[in-house]
Design brief:
The protein is mainly alpha-helical.
Length: 523
Amino acid sequence: MKIRSYAGITKPSFLLVHPELPALTSRNPQFTSIFTLRIPCNREKLIGMITRSQYSVADRRSATRYGDSSVSNKNTNRLGRRQGGSSSLYSRPSLLDMKNDRMENRARVYEFLRGIGIVPDELDGLELPVTVEVMRERVDFLHKLGLTIEDLNNYPLVLGCSVKKNMIPVLDYLGKLGVRKSTFTEFLRRYPQVLHASVVIDLSPVVKYLQGMDIKPDDIPRVLERYPEVLGFKLEGTMSTSVAYLVGIGVARREIGGVLTRYPEILGMRVGRVIKPFVEYLEDLGIPRLGVARLIEKRPHILGFGLEERVKPNVQSLLEFCVRKESLASVVAQYPEIIGIDLKPKLLSQQSSLKSVIDLSPEEFGRVVEKMPQVVSLSDRPMMKHVDFLKNCGFSLEQVRKMVAGCPQLLALNLDIMKLSFEFFQTEMQRPLDDLVDFPAFFTYGLESTIKPRHKMVSKKGLKCSLGWLLNCSDEKFAQRMDYDTIEMEEMELLPSFDMNTLTEPKNDDSGSDYDDSDDDYV
């Protein structure tokens, strides 16, 4: 078989035949002239020759491209070196470079803080601004809130709070609640951690809990101002258990809101460590549990008296100053503050004063404290005025001593009212002074409401009675006495004394809660 007029490429080991072969792009193609070629008849050999030729051409083209790429890379590398580095404009810094940058930025921030007097040792590990300018903005903002360098050193972690993301949202929320801006400085000094809090996750749930405890919305800001730490408590923790315990011992549920409003620190007290031991100790003194609950309703701050640091030492001091053990419950019930003040110096001072003025013995001083424990908080000058008044009324020193020992309230009553009562005693009742020595509590009764009307009724009936029989009873009891023809000895009542049962009497629901936190008129 013969084929004529075909173009071909001569190779060392084979002959490639292709009909109508296009022009090749190699630099020096070698073409054969028109010739006569004999093709093998074996078809498989022909296919193998063609396949080997295709691989050979592909290898040659690949080699050509590789050579061109190598030249290009060399040129690029030379260009990169001429421009000052081997990395391109789009390369990212390494982790080591980033770490070094952070260290350098933190060092500059630390240097700034040290320069203004802040010790940054506790800030290691805390995320801080990357620039000094941002840190200066935070410090300036905290200064505007009234915090000093000393305050920042007391809690340097506050410098990790962002002004826009943390501080402003929290302060805006507190302002909307009604917390006064004038209290922000003290608020943040006591609880700077609030600036780390989330309004939605941390603060708002606590406020809703307080409202659920019957604290009025208008009282919420006062509670937060008094005890800002409450914003950091968990709802299912100390707060709920302390309230539940108080209700359990007899504190009226309707009184809880007033109790927490006046002394929110209760919410942070642990029942097992603080509240329960205090309640049980007062029970051991002789105050019934319900009586303790009534004391807490009226003066919830007594729960803040340290049991070991203050309460027990004060009780021991009372015993040392001749207060009888069986009278301790009455003393505490009448004047709960007596177990929370710095008592011993006051006892020494008052005992010394009364000893020097009316020659009161230690045992008599003990009786005075039992009947009016507020005497420990009286000032010397008012007491001396009352003693002088009694002396001017004609009582001897011995009589004054006996009257004060029997009714120490004489040392604290309103002098103008005492003068009016004594004038009525002399001019209208015309009784001897010994009647007042026997019943000095006469001065404690209202002139217009009690003394005058009862004296008028007794005089009209023609009865002769002591001042104690006349005054030391309820209006109902006195009305019954007016039906008597004679006065029997068993009706003669003793001087009024504190009745523990009055402490446990339930409050009238119609009267509502009285949250007046003022002390008695004796102080």
